[in-house]
Design brief:
The complex is a heterodimer. Chain A is built from 18 helices and 15 strands. By secondary structure, chain A is α/β, with parallel strands linked by helices. Chain A has two domains: 5-109 and 185-270, 3-Layer(aba) Sandwich (Rossmann fold); 281-396, CBS-domain (Roll), CATH 3.10.580. Chain A has a six-stranded mixed beta sheet with strand order 6-7-8-3-9-10, sandwiched between helices. In chain A, strands 2-1-4-5 form a four-stranded antiparallel beta sheet, with helices on both faces. In chain A, 40% of the residues are buried. By secondary structure, chain B is mostly helical. Chain B has twelve helices and no strands. Classes of the chains: A alpha/beta, B mainly alpha. The interface between A and B is medium-sized, with 35 and 24 residues.
């Protein structure tokens, strides 16, 4: 993934109360949230937030209620103005925009999806989807055609003329998603977008978001209080507590190296088998050989004590070969130059680096040797052994007890 | 120590002086500017007279047909339309057609005026807490001050006639539409507003596309109340020379004509019910989207 920064937040503070600017120095001094509240009656909403969000990633901000995550996301498009700090979107200094520029910025750059959908109840579904374009001043025919297209993309064909109140929660949020996508904004702000939905619908929506994202490559800022959701969707996750950023990292960093007790407590209840992928726990393949004949293969395997090796050639991963089998053939036929044919190559099971651990556990148990991890292009990426799996999953058990 | 037993009130002379100076100041003001202000209201007066004449001059069956058609379009209820036709016919049958048309014209004008003035004031109040703090007590005064009291300066300024009547009715009837426009806009769902803001709406787009439509149930309730209050004011307005159903009622009070009073009173009630049902049904039908699932 390229690491072009799309949104940058620097030293962001938000204090709620009648005279936030006067309280700011005290917060700078490091007074705690409770102390500030007791002394001045002001609530510290966000404290010294520094963030970089990359183009094309799903960046999840997670925290419990009251942690300031919804306040934070509203700073991105300045629905809430910070007490201090800077917000950049690419090279735009968002804090410097005047009212009119800010309006234009919101129209073009960011689109938002809300927890309770925020649909206009007096607009039909299609008019809701076209709302962003209407605001931009796009003519009716163009915007309705585009809205129809997006509505079809989220699977709501035929609902155009319904009103939001006639739709189920999941359908309403699809409308909310279509409305956001219809503006072609590069950045999607999703504020607890799936939190109000049933678990089943929620996971459906998560799948849909992931599918859409594969096609669209938007920059998505996703707010949630649900760690499972964060781990499932996030390329990177930021954890927020009491308005402070505790940890930012890839899901596996959060799971495997929690920054403090708070994050650890969070992570403890997560089903790791469902949260981690093969890629997160695999090791680099210990024995890889490139050979055409049995003799060559045996030659290369001599270097290591291993009893098997992964065979690769120009076309990528071919399969595993066992030392015993090869030696037996050589002994029986006395033909070391015999080509490595399909008979000797074992290519029964391969796992994908993106597969969840949960999915590969049965395969791992069936096999005597580590499983080869092969990507979509057929390249060997690593190996997954029972022991490394047990190590990662075992930690959870240790923590739980 | 007399202030312990007697209220320390201003002396009679002072009070008289205050009254006299205020009265004469106002009288001077009305002599000076009365005509200018009257001139300002001339277009309204012309419209009022034209509309009243139109309603009276039009064939009675045409007027009934139009009112029934409006009822039918707004309510889609044949029963209500039939009821409207019958009650209008009965009003005519009992000899109250012309008075009813006069009342209808003045109520229509007063209602339109209240909406045209009241909705923007309500919007202003909803946008600014300061405006709300200033306007709310004024509305309280308008609703509680006895109508006769503010009739006096109006009559001093503009004399007796239709315009002072309209002003009196509007002053009395406009508060509900202002209050409920304000309330309706303030009650619009915060998340919907936030959504609109996040898509970069201008204040005008927000008002027209989001706030007003969503406040409409409350605004319509306010309009409905305004119409009812305007009708209630008809009798008082007739005291300053507004033609219509109020005048026979006034005559019956002074002469103790019970039946005459009852008939005209019932005609006012009939008008009120027609206005009420039609405006309510229209309001309900314009919010079909609300009840999508329960229908």
């Amino acid at each position: 993934m390229n690491k072009q920064v799309q949104i940058r937040i620097e030293k962001l503070f938000k204090i709620f109360g009648p005279t936030p600017a006067k309280v700011l120095p005290q917060v700078h001094e490091g007074k705690s949230k409770d102390q500030v509240l007791a002394d001045t009656g002001h609530t510290v909403g966000l404290k010294d937030i520094n963030l970089e969000i990359h183009r094309g990633e799903i960046f999840v901000i997670m925290g419990l209620s009251g942690s300031g995550k919804s306040t934070l996301i509203r700073h991105f498009n300045r629905i809430i103005d910070p007490t201090a700090g800077q917000i950049f979107c690419e090279d735009i200094d968002v804090m410097q925009l005047n009212t009119k520029q800010l309006r234009e910025f919101r129209r073009q750059k960011m689109a938002m999806v809300f927890q309770h959908f925020g649909l206009l109840p007096h607009y039909t579904v299609i008019d809701n989807v076209a709302f962003g374009l209407k605001t931009q001043g796009v003519d009716k025919k163009t915007r309705l055609a585009k809205a129809r297209q997006w509505l079809a993309d989220v699977g709501l064909n035929g609902y155009e003329e319904q009103y939001p109140s006639q739709l189920s929660g999941g359908q309403q949020q699809r409308v909310g998603l279509a409305r956001a996508l219809c503006t072609d904004a590069e950045i999607l702000l999703m504020d607890e977008a799936f939190s109000a939905l049933d678990p089943l619908i929620r996971s459906e929506m998560q799948d849909q978001l992931i599918q859409l994202q594969e096609k669209l490559h938007k920059t998505i800022v996703f707010i949630t209080h649900d760690l499972d959701e964060a781990l499932r969707l996030g390329d990177r996750i930021a954890i927020l507590r009491d308005g402070e950023l505790i940890q930012v990292g890839a899901p596996k960093d959060i799971l495997l190296n929690p920054a403090d007790d708070y994050v650890e407590a969070f992570v403890r209840d997560v089903n790791r088998a469902r949260a981690l992928t093969v890629e997160n726990v695999m090791k680099s393949p210990s024995n890889r050989i490139t050979a055409n004949t049995i003799g060559e293969a045996l030659q290369q395997m001599k270097a290591t004590p291993a009893v098997f090796a992964y065979l690769e050639n120009a076309d990528g991963y071919q399969g595993a070969v066992l030392k015993n089998t090869l030696e037996k053939i050589v002994r029986e036929t006395d033909d070391a130059d015999a080509p490595l044919c399909e008979k000797v190559i074992e290519d029964t099971v391969r796992v994908s680096p993106d597969a969840l651990l949960e999915e590969v556990i049965p395969d791992t148990l069936d096999q005597d040797y580590p499983l080869p991890v092969v990507d979509e292009e057929g390249n060997l990426k690593g190996e997954l052994s029972r022991s490394s799996l047990a190590q990662v999953l075992g930690t959870t058990t240790a923590n739980e007890t | 120590m007399s202030w312990l037993t007697d209220f320390p009130q201003l002396s009679r002379e002072t009070l008289v002086a205050i009254r006299q100076s205020l009265d004469s100041a106002y009288r001077d003001f009305s002599r000076e500017y009365g005509e200018v202000i009257e001139g300002f209201f001339d277009p309204l007066l012309a419209f009022l007279i034209w509309f009243e004449k139109l309603l009276i001059a039009a064939p009675w069956w045409l007027v009934i047909a139009i009112i029934v058609a409006i009822t039918q379009i707004a309510t889609r209820s044949w029963r209500l339309s039939a009821g409207v036709a019958v009650s209008l016919f009965l009003i005519g049958l009992f000899g109250m057609w012309e008075d009813t048309m006069s009342t209808l014209s003045i109520i229509t004008v007063c209602t339109l005026l209240s909406i045209v003035l009241g909705v923007p004031i309500g919007i202003l109040m909803a946008r600014s807490d300061r405006a709300q703090a200033i306007i709310t007590p004024i509305l309280d005064v308008m609703q509680t001050m006895p109508a006769f009291v503010y009739l006096i300066p109006v009559v001093m300024l503009l004399g007796i006639g239709k315009i002072p009547g309209v002003i009196a009715v509007v002053v009395y009837a406009i508060p509900p539409v202002i209050r409920l426009t304000n309330l309706g806009i303030r009650l619009v769902d915060r998340e919907v507003l936030e959504a609109a803001t996040s898509y970069g709406v201008s204040p005008w787009q927000k008002l027209i596309n989001v706030q007003l439509p969503l406040a409409m149930p409350n605004i319509m309730a306010g309009v409905n109340q305004t119409i009812m209050m305007a009708l209630a004011m008809v009798v008082i307005a007739s005291m300053i020379g507004v033609a219509g159903l109020g005048q026979p009622v006034l005559r019956s009070i002074t002469n103790q004509y019970f039946t005459l009073g009852l008939f005209n009173g019932l005609a006012i009630v009939a008008l009120a019910i027609i206005f009420d049902r039609v405006s309510q049904a229209y309001a309900k039908r314009s919010q079909r989207y609300m009840g999508g699932r329960s229908e």
